[in-house]
Amino acid sequence: MPPFECPNCTVGRLVIKKENESWKTPHHEAQAYQELELDHIMGGRYHAFMVCQHANCGEVVSVIGDYLTEHLLLGRDRWDNPIVENDTNITPRAMMPAPHIIKVSPELSAVARNHLVRSFELFWVDIGSCANRIRIFLEAVLDQLGVIREMQRPDGTAYVLNLFQRVNELGAVKPGHEEALHALREVGNVGSHEGDAAVDDVLDCYELLEATLEELLEDKKAKLAAKAAAIRARKGRPAP
Q1: Would you state the pLDDT for residue 99?
Q2: SS (H, E, C) the chain
């Protein structure tokens, strides 16, 4: 398991020690391996605690999932004893509290932040639900940015804008992010209507999301441009 960033302090790294790991094979699975004569394979359930190594934090993350161990015969020693190496793969099924997959902007509203953090949890549990929660998060970000949810028809009656229309409304005032946000919307639609999504697509969505939020909420390019302009105005000399 990689040393994930701590979801609490975001400074320390999460580490698993052997005494915090538990491995258990259900009886019916052990029987199935025996009946299939798969003596070189064993699997079952896995549980562990990942602990933040930052001195002032110590957050504890619970991990549950499945494991599969394959006993690989590498050869024999000079006494003809088998030389065996165990290759173990762990498939996490849930992490609580979940490590952050991308940076959580301090500029996010509480509602939007809650949806984003929930999507991190769902990533390990159900990738389709994770994609759906990213879509819900996008709606919340548009709310935070003041993008309207309703418009009026010529006859004065109101109608609700769908997410496609809301993204385009944002593009009218803050152009340049439509492609990224529509990509998030479409992956979210697949998660919502088909109950599934490609893991790589969801990870790409997180990458797009992180870069887009830096611009929409933190004005990163504008701030860097202002710093460059200030340096040039001083002709590179130190500020007084």
Answers
A1: 96
A2: CCCCECCCCCCCEEEEEEEEEEEECCHHHHHHHHHCCCCCEEEEEEEEEEEECCCCCCCEEEEEEEEEEEEEEEEECCCCCEEEEEEEEEEEEEEECCCCCCCCCCCCCHHHHHHHHHHHHHHHHCHHHHHHHHHHHHHHHHHHCCCCCEEECCCCCEEECCHHHHHHHHHHHCCCCHHHHHHHHHHHHHHHHHCCCCHHHHHHHHHHHHHHHHHHCCCHHHHHHHHHHHHHHCCCCCCC
